[in-house]
Amino acid sequence: MRKIAALLLLLVFINAEAQYNPYRYSISKKAEVKNGAVVSAHPLASKVGVAILKKGGNAFDATIATQLALAVVYPGAGNIGGGGFLVAVTAKNEQIALDYREKAPAAASRDMYLDKDGNAQTNLSQNGHLASGVPGTVAGLFSTHKYAKLPFTQLIQPAIDLAEKGFAITEAEANNLNNSMGDFVRYNTKSNALIKYGGWKAGDTLIQKELAATLKRIRDFGQKGFYEGETAKLIVAEMKRGGGLITLADLKNYQTAKREAMVSQYKGYTIVGMPLVSSGGILIQQMMGMVENRNIAQYGFHSPEAVQLMIEIERRAFADRAEFLGDRDFVKVPVKKLTSPEYLRQRMADYDATKPGSSKTTTHGNISPESEETTHLSVCDQFGNAVSVTTTLNGNYGSRTVVAGAGFLLNNEMDDFSIKPGVPNMYGALGTEANAIAANKRMLSSMTPTIVLKDGKPYLVLGSPGGTTIPTQVYQVLINTLEFNLSLEDAVWKPRFHHQWLPDVVYVERNFPADTRDKLKAMGYEIVVRGNIGRFEAIKITRNASSVLTIEAVADNRGDDHAEGY
Ligand code: DON
C-alpha cells in the first residue's frame, strides 16, 4: 500500500510539471525555436526555465526559476550561497546590470590570510569557513524579480520539489561529488546530503531535505527568509563552529547593487556588458577595441596570425586588470581612460606580428590619475527580453562547507581578492591594492555576462564559467561570430585558447589545431595544453522582415550543458 502511495506521489510530481521527469532526462545541445529558450549547465534547470516561459513567464521569470533549480541540481556551482552578475536588455531596450557579488564580512581585513611571517595562506582563502564572502545570490534573485511577471512562490517551487523529492544525478556530477568527498568531510562541522560514503554513481537520486526547507523559508518570507530568521541563524552558527566571520549584521546588511551596464559599439553592433566589480565588461571593451581596426577576418579563423593578434591583446588587457581593477565603491578605477580608443591604440603601439610579446616588458598601461566553478545561463523570451547571468561559488562546490541544518554550500569567494600583492589566486590572477581585502568590499571578478544588440535588439546572449578564462572565451566567441562568421555551434564548440599576461604562457585546449600551435611555438610562444576551457551557453536571435523570431540556442559540448526552447 505504502509503495503504491509513493508511486502515485511520484507520478503527481512528474505530471505536475509535465515537461520533464527528474529521474529520466537526456541532454540536448541545440534548440532552434520561435518563442523562447534557456541554455544552462544542466538539462533539468533548462527545462524548469522553459516550463516557466510556457506558463507565460518572461525571460526574468525563467532566469530566476533556472537559477534556483541550478542551486539544487548543479551544486558545484549553482547556488544560493554564492553570488553573481546579471546583464539584461528588456523589450523596451532598458539595459540592466545587477551586481550581487559576495562581500567581505565586516570583520575581514587586508592581511587576514597572512601568517605571522607574512606568508599568504591560500588554503584559508580557498577552503572552509574563512573563505566565504557574504552571499549575494538570493538578494540578486529578488532584485531580478522586479522585472518578472509571475509570483516568486511559483518560480521557486520547481527547485523545492527537486530538492525535496530528489533527482537523478548525471555521471559528471557523480564523479565531481566523489572527487570532493574528502573535502566535504574535512570542511564540514556536520554531515550533509552531498556525502555518501559508498560513493555516488550516475542515476543515483540526490535528495536535499534541508535545502528544500531553506528554499521554503525563502518562498514564505522572501529575501528575509535567507538573510534573517532561521536561515541567517544557521549560517552564523555554522560560522561559529568553523571559525568563519559572517555575522547576522553582515547578512541583514547585504544588498544588490544596481549598476550602469557597460555599453560599447563594435562595427554596428552594440555590446552590453557587466561593469565593475566584474572585470568582464572592461576587458571585453578593451579587447574588442584593440582588435577593431586590424581587419582580423583577413587572416582566417584559428590561423597563427589571428591567434597571435588575439593573444597579444589578451596579454595587455589582463596586465591592466591586475594593476587597476577592484571595487569602485572602495577604490578609484580609471575606467574611461582604460577603454578610450586613444589609450587602446597606444597599448598596441609595440605589437609586433613577427615575434612574441613579453609580459616582462609589456606590463600595465600608463595612466595618469583620473579627475577610476561558476555557471552561466542565457535566456530569451517571446516578448523581446534577453537575460545573461553568470553566478558562482568560485571553486567547484565553493568552500566545500555546507551550512548545517540549511543544506547549501557556501562560496570561497574571498580568494578572488588579492590576498597579498604578487600572490596569485586559484586562477593565477594577480592584483594590487585596488583589489586588496577590506571590510564590506566586493572582490574583483572575471565573470562576463554579455548581450550583443543588432539594430537595437538582442542578437547574441553569451557567457561562461572558467575564472580568468571567461573574458577571453567571450572575446573569442564574439570574434568567431562577428568577424569569422562562424555558425553559433562552431563559435562555441571549436577549441579555445587563453592568455592572461601572467603567467606568460598561451593555454590551448587539447584539440586546438596542431599546426597553429606549432607555428606559435616556433615563433617563441610557450604553449601549455590544458583541459576544457569553460562551458559556454549562447543564444542567437534573428528576426525576419515581419519581426518573427528565429532563436538558436547552443549549449557547450564540454559538459552536461543543455539547450531547451519552444
Ligand atoms: O568571479 C570570478 O572571476 C571567479 N570566482 C569565477 C570562478 C569560475 O568561473 C569557476 N568556474 N570554473
TrEMBL record:
Stored PROSITE patterns: G_GLU_TRANSPEPTIDASE
Keyword Nucleus: no
Chain residues that bind L-glutamate: R101, T392, L393, N394, D416, S445, S446, G467
PTM (free text): Cleaved by autocatalysis into a large and a small subunit.
Pathway annotation from the record: Sulfur metabolism; glutathione metabolism
Keyword Signal in record: yes
EC number: 2.3.2.2, 3.4.19.13
Catalytic site positions: T374 (nucleophile)
Catalytic reactions on record: an S-substituted glutathione + H2O = an S-substituted L-cysteinylglycine + L-glutamate; an N-terminal (5-L-glutamyl)-[peptide] + an alpha-amino acid = 5-L-glutamyl amino acid + an N-terminal L-alpha-aminoacyl-[peptide]; glutathione + H2O = L-cysteinylglycine + L-glutamate
Oligomeric and partner information: This enzyme consists of two polypeptide chains, which are synthesized in precursor form from a single polypeptide.
Gene giving rise to this polypeptide: ggt
Molecular function terms, GO-annotated: glutathione hydrolase activity; leukotriene C4 gamma-glutamyl transferase activity
NCBIfam families per the UniProt record, alphabetical: g_glut_trans
Annotated signal peptide: 1-18
Keywords, comma-separated and alphabetical: Acyltransferase, Glutathione biosynthesis, Hydrolase, Signal, Transferase, Zymogen
InterPro entries, A to Z: GGT_bact, GGT_CS, GGT_lsub, GGT_peptidase, GGT_ssub_C, Ntn_hydrolases_N
Gene3D superfamilies attached to this UniProt entry: 1.10.246.130, 3.60.20.40
Pfam family of the protein (one): G_glu_transpept
GO BP terms, alphabetized: glutathione biosynthetic process; glutathione catabolic process
Family: Belongs to the gamma-glutamyltransferase family.
Name assigned to this protein: Glutathione hydrolase proenzyme
